[in-house]
Amino acid sequence: MELSSEGDVLYANKACQRLFGYSLEELTELNLVELIPGNFLQAGDPLYQDFMQNYSADRIFESASLTAFRKDGEVFFAAIGVSEVSDSGNIIITINESARLKSAEQNLVELNKKFMVATEAAGIGIWEFDFETGELQWDEQMHRLYGVLERDFKGTYEEWVSRLHPDDLGPTEAMFNYSVEQQTKFDTSFRITTPTGEEKYLKAYGHVIYDEKNTPLQAIGVNYDLTDRYTAQKRLIESTEENAMLAKLAQETDNAVILTDAHQNITWVNRSFEKISGYSYEEVIGKKPGVFLQGDRSDKKVVERMSSAVRNGHGFNEELINYHKDGNPYWLRINCQPLYGDGKLTGFMALETDITEQKEAEIKITNLNRLQKAVLDSANLMLISTDIDFNIKTFNRCAQELLEYDEAEAVGKLNLADFFDPQDLMYGAQKLGRNLDSVFEPDITSFLNKAKQTGSAEQEWQLLTKRQRAFPAMLSITPIEDDSDNVEGYLAIARDISQLKLMEAEKQRNQDLMETTGTMAKLGGLGTQSQNQRAILVQRSVSHSRDPSWAKNRSQRRYLLLRARSQTYYSTCHRRRYCRW
């Protein structure tokens, strides 16, 4: 029971109301002397301090029993304990019926222990505020909640307000003032900021004690931490919103979505799965996807990789042929990830994308590339494509045979300039410079200037094989342009003209022989036998020049040609001597 300094009852708890048989409203209209006559001394009494000492709250079980009266007039004996609660002079009286003092003592001790454990476990802090002095008192748990050491706490209303979150300051003060003015319970929640910057959510309960004139005297209440609860609620709301969004996304996406349990049995599929596979939701629930979706054309190695991954609780990314309900195959790109709950595998989620059109296009491109490669390889021309820097990108079979490089050795490793004879490059640059009236460096770029200016360039070159064997080739280079007419590479086409060069050489040699024979005929004076012999020799030379085996025997060819020239020289000299003689 709380009393004013004059002994007026300001507040009485339920136990006190039951003890005296009065309601709270009735008790607050009474003075202690009406309940326990002749025992209360006011603060101004000379014996007041003796009264406070004799009936101290910590000596309640040692005090004498006092006569008290219930509402119905019944007399009972009570023991009281008195303590001041504020500078205002208000006191708190604890009243116990004497017959129950011993058992009450034990109960009180136990209750205090339980109360201390409960408040500490629940994180409940108790506060008191004196309206007259402005003093604010916190217990130990309040200091823990606010992160303020007791020595640093100023014990004022302003100290508490300064800890409120700026966004909650106005509403919280308004609620407290409303409770005081309307004499209602103070029940609210707010955020605080600790000295270390930590943000907490607190719940506050309290009630205000008034005097007989309804002037607020004291507010008593509790705070406890709601941070974990608010954080959990926030996460739950965010999770709910996220799950709703994901559920909508999963339902509306064009990709098929499959959820399974830990044993790969289907628990849910979206509408896109039904559309892509042809199976309804009801038809697939509880089944394993591979049982009814895979078929003869499903790659066994891919299926085994997928099975191994899920057996070990891992995800996978694969491309696989599945089968529609009507039996038609289709391509899927499958992204499967494991799902965990409380650290345990709970199932799998697979996102499947229909890539049938893409795979068919890839197959067509692959077939076209194979056809193109076959065409290029069947050509009796060297076909070499390069990038803008002449690094080789493609290298057909004919190029491999003539240049003696494998495709793997050339593509991405060699440059077109690697096949040119350096001396021939210098000669070509000089020749091209004369044709274009310019000066060019002795490298392949000089040859390409013509291709850039005219759209193509063709010229005879000496090309070098892997074994540094040179052979003549007619080479043309054409720029390859993109859609914006920018040069992105070059196409080099070359043919081996070794045989052609041999034929031209033989033709020239035959022509030289015929011219020599004509010259000798004009000189005259040759005997019939000598003339016939020369004709036979020339005929044999021409005949042998057409014989491939003879063409390869350079020693024999030189011998016959020298013999023909010697005979011509001898005959000429003989005729001149005969004429002079």
Describe the structure.
By secondary structure, the chain is of the alpha+beta class. It folds into five domains: 2-117, Beta-Lactamase (2-Layer Sandwich); 123-231, Beta-Lactamase (2-Layer Sandwich); 257-359, Beta-Lactamase, CATH 3.30.450.20; 381-496, 2-Layer Sandwich (Beta-Lactamase), CATH 3.30.450; 510-580, no CATH class. The chain is 46% helix and 25% strand. It contains 22 helices and 20 strands. The strands form four sheets. The protein has a five-stranded antiparallel sheet with strand order 2-1-5-4-3. Helix 17 (422-436) runs parallel beside helix 18 (444-454), helix 19 runs antiparallel to helix 20 (528-546) and helix 19 runs parallel beside helix 22. The longest helix has 27 residues, at 554-580. It is elongated and about 180 Å long. The N and C termini lie far apart (175 Å). The model is unreliable at 57-62, 548-552 and 565-581 (pLDDT under 50). Residues 94-121 form a coiled coil. Residues 1-36, 242-313, 368-424 form the PAS domain. Residues 186-238, 314-367, 457-509 form the PAC domain.
Q: In terms of topology, how is this protein built?
A:
Blueprint: E1 2-3, E2 9-11, H1 14-20, H2 24-27, H3 32-35, H4 48-54, E3 66-69, E4 75-84, E5 91-97, H5 101-122, E6 124-130, E7 136-138, H6 140-146, H7 157-162, H8 166-182, E8 186-193, E9 199-210, E10 216-225, H9 227-252, E11 256-261, E12 266-269, H10 271-277, H11 281-284, H12 289-293, H13 300-311, E13 316-323, E14 329-341, E15 344-354, H14 356-378, E16 382-387, E17 392-395, H15 397-403, H16 407-410, H17 422-436, H18 444-454, E18 457-464, E19 470-481, E20 487-496, H19 498-523, H20 528-546, H21 548-552, H22 554-580
Antiparallel strand pairs: 1-2, 1-5, 3-4, 4-5, 6-7, 6-10, 8-9, 9-10, 11-12, 11-15, 13-14, 14-15, 16-17, 16-20, 18-19, 19-20
